[in-house]
Amino acid sequence: MTQRITLGPGAESLTISTAVDWQESEKLLKLGFALDVRADRSAAETQFGHVFRPTHLNTSWEAAKFEICAHRWIHVAEPGYGVAISNSSTYGHDVTRNIREDDGGTTTTVRLSLLRSPKFPDPGADRGRHELNVTIRPGASIADAVQEGYRTNLAPRVVKGAHGALPLVTVSNPALVVEAVKLAEDGSGDVIVRVYESLGSGPQGSWWPTSTPAASVLSTCWSGQRPHRE
Question: What are the residue ranges spanned by the domains of the chain?
């Protein structure tokens, strides 16, 4: 196993790249971060949003959550300060509280489950070569965590051209995330834009096509609101 830690010029996050030839048996490989943050809950990305989970073990239900799921990022914070951890291929996490022996202060440990090697149901699970990328961004808000998750999983592609290109879609609120832009599958030439609000504050803001004027826009909402035309 080799591990490379990179901090690029002007970067707001530290990148940890781990290359492993995994041939273990009944082992679990974790990457942990002991953070000087007193977090009472964690925020874990799910599809088009995030879910909060407490970090305490006050109930048997919480104690049973020895591992939790997060998609591209997990965020822990105390009032005024947070830390975001993003990943390229890891869903399993655990978040625990710890007490410092010297002064009794509360800290938070976040661990990612990178690779496993169970006997059942798949004795060959995760065997082979892997390259796993994780970033940690101190002083981060949940909005920063969303950005970090996309940056880790969808790196910008630079291509040469005659001139710069405008984005296909522009949003008025940075909390709005353009998740997908694609042609309709019915061959009509219509363009489908999937936008979601990433911070849980409701549909505040607007979006519009940037490079090509639209003859009409049909907006739909998954929450059950009726479609309307603009």
Answer: 2-153, 169-229
Class of domain 2-153: mainly beta
Residue 190 to residue 115: CA distance in whole angstroms: 42
In 67-216, alpha helices (H): 142-153
Q: What is the pTM of this model?
A: 0.88
Backbone angles phi, psi at 78, to 5 degrees: -115, 170
Full pLDDT tens readout for the chain, 230 residues = 999 999 999 999 999 999 999 999 999 999 999 999 999 999 999 999 999 999 998 888 888 888 999 999 999 999 999 999 999 999 999 999 999 989 999 999 999 999 999 999 999 999 999 999 999 999 999 999 999 999 999 988 888 989 888 888 888 888 999 999 999 999 998 889 999 999 988 767 787 777 666 767 777 765 534 343 44
